[in-house]
Design goal:
By secondary structure, this protein is of the alpha+beta class. Helix content is 29%, strand content 38%. It is built from four helices and seven strands; from the N terminus they run βααβββαβαββ. A seven-stranded mixed sheet has the order 1-2-3-4-5-7-6, with helices on both faces.
């Protein structure tokens, strides 16, 4: 699959109108995707839910939950056809800026231990591995996969 360039992109609040396109990406991007209900709950709870759009094309999206002086990145996804073009780094920078603006001192996330590519992106963005959550994620055939806990000091 060749890379597709999307030179002009903007963040827009994720709405119900985006969910069909988002779910198409989520289903392709992950073996254990979030459900439509997970996204609906996040929107309804008032979490920071943003889509990265190039016109009508969704490049990616993220969901962040704000806590007391910290933010927790719950989901960040780049559409597979736009991966390896710097969009994840752009989204991480936007998330960090948003969290700092709300008084967060730390940005937390969990990532599958087997997702080396994502872990490398996070590390390149300044995140540090700080621990492991055993059997955190569901995996194939009823198994569980560990999560690496990572944080970024803001």
């Amino acid at each position: 699959m060749s890379a597709v360039l999307a030179p002009q992109a903007a963040f827009v609040p994720l709405t119900l109108a985006h969910l069909d396109a988002l779910m198409e990406i989520e289903q392709v991007a992950y073996a254990q995707p979030w459900s439509r209900g997970n996204f609906l709950d996040s929107i309804n709870m008032g979490y920071e839910c943003q889509a990265l759009m190039a016109g009508e094309e969704m490049l990616g999206y993220f969901v962040v939950m704000m806590g007391v002086q910290e933010a927790h990145l719950l989901n960040i996804t780049v559409a597979p056809r736009y991966q390896r073009q710097g969009w994840a780094r752009l989204m991480l920078e936007a998330i960090a800026l948003w969290a700092r603006g709300r008084g967060a001192r730390m940005l937390w996330l969990e990532v599958r231990v087997g997702n080396e590519r994502a872990r490398a992106v996070y590390a390149a963005g300044g995140f540090q591995s700080v621990g492991v959550r055993r059997n955190y994620y569901p995996a194939a055939q009823g198994r569980r996969e560990d999560a690496v806990m990572m944080c970024l000091t803001l």
